[in-house]
Amino acid sequence: MKIISSKENKIYKLIKKIKKKKYREKEKLFIAEGKKFLDFEYKPKYYILNENNIGLYSKLLEKEETYIFSEDLFYDITTQINSQGIILIYEYIPSCIEKIKNNIVILDKIQDPGNLGTIIRLVDAVGLKDIILTKGSVDIYNDKTIRSSMGSIFNLNISYLETDKLIKILKQKEYNIISTALTNETIEYTKMELKEKNAFVFGNEGNGISKEILDISTAKIKIPIYGSAESLNVGVATGIILYKYIEKVNS
Fold first, then answer.
1. Which CATH code is given to the segment(s) 2-91?
2. Which residues form the tRNA/rRNA methyltransferase SpoU type domain (predicted)?
């Protein structure tokens, strides 16, 4: 345990830096906030406590990797209005594209970190393990993504790939590629047919799925809209389709 009250402290400076993506990538570290993250087996490199909340985390006070920040310093780094007084610094989570299983979720240039966090949580909830994001998608270690994932990020194998490399893998492994899209070939999501290997593709919030991926898709599906809404949020659409997938698998 170390008590920190100066902005010259190296850990304080490190945390300020890794709030930005380029420094996260350089240091291979990311920030998670809230006591919920203490429930997971993936252990942080540093525990940062607000001096006013140390009574809530007495078990952490004996750890060498625990730092107690003054209230001013802590509130200078927290991103939460009603902070629980604990911030955790983690090393990047190992991922391996070679270990992807028969059913995967692909996110094509998704931009909103809250949507990504929600989808990570959904994928974990339905029991899938693999997500592939195309390059140009939002950073999985964005603080909003981490917060929205509610810790499910620790349970998944998440990789980034260039679109051409992704397409090569999908073809080589003979995936049944099910993409959300509105074309003349689109069918309702309830009619999608599953095979041994299925890749569910969801696209950018504004532009949808890239033409390169649509061109190799086995099926294009849609969720019908019965009211006046123009479209569904990508996180909502992912939930509807993945739970239909589970229903079909278990039927």
1. 3.30.1330.30
2. 104-243
Contact call for residues 132 and 162 (beta carbons, < 8 A): no
Residue-wise pLDDT for 136-181, tens only, equals 999 999 999 999 999 999 999 999 999 999 999 999 999 999 999 9
CATH superfamily label, 97-250: SPOUT methyltransferase, trefoil knot domain (3.40.1280.10)
Instruction: Write the pLDDT tens digit of every residue in 70-109.
Output: 999 999 999 888 899 999 999 999 999 998 989 999 999 9
Using the structure block, give the residue that is written with the tokens 């509610």.
Answer: 150
As a whole number of angstroms, the longest Cα–Cα distance in the chain is: 64
Beta-strand ranges (E) seen in 51-164 are 66-69, 86-91, 103-108, 130-134, 157-161
Q: Are 242 and 105 in contact (CB under 8 A)?
A: yes
